[in-house]
């Protein structure tokens, strides 16, 4: 319309600036710590997780919106590892055993190591090129 001036866009304060000032920086510090815990756990366990920040804004006095309190609550779902499981066998008497009672036992014994023999190298298939020992191996 002729004769009207466009209204200026309001300047909105960046969220990060407010977050840094909430509870004297404690909310920002807690979020930073929780994010690090989350990323470490995701790497360790291979499962996803989440962090949520709930910001509550309330008037200091009912009906007065000019002065408000701002608080932040952090909730985190950090992945955890499943407890490790052990396999046991149930024996006839009801006890748990690491050995399968149905498995036959082999009479195993220790065998002495064979004597070391020198390595040899085939240098050719012709009688003029015999197989020879490899020095230093």
Please, could you describe this protein's structure?
This protein is of the alpha+beta class and 137 residues long. Helices cover 20% and strands 20% of the residues. A hairpin with an 8-residue loop joins strand 1 and strand 2.
Largest sheet: 2 strands, antiparallel
Question: Roughly how many Å is the radius of gyration?
Answer: 37 Å
Structural class designation = alpha+beta
Report, as a whole number of angstroms, the end-to-end distance.
96 Å
Number of helices: 2
What shape does the CA trace take? elongated
Short descriptors:
single chain, 137 residues, alpha+beta, two-stranded antiparallel sheet
Quick recap:
The protein has 137 residues and is of the alpha+beta class. The chain has two helices and six strands. It has a domain at 15-77.
How would you summarize the topology of this molecule?
Elements: H1 15-21, H2 26-45, E1 50-59, E2 68-77, E3 89-90, E4 96-97, E5 120-121, E6 132-133
Antiparallel strand pairs: 1-2, 3-4, 5-6
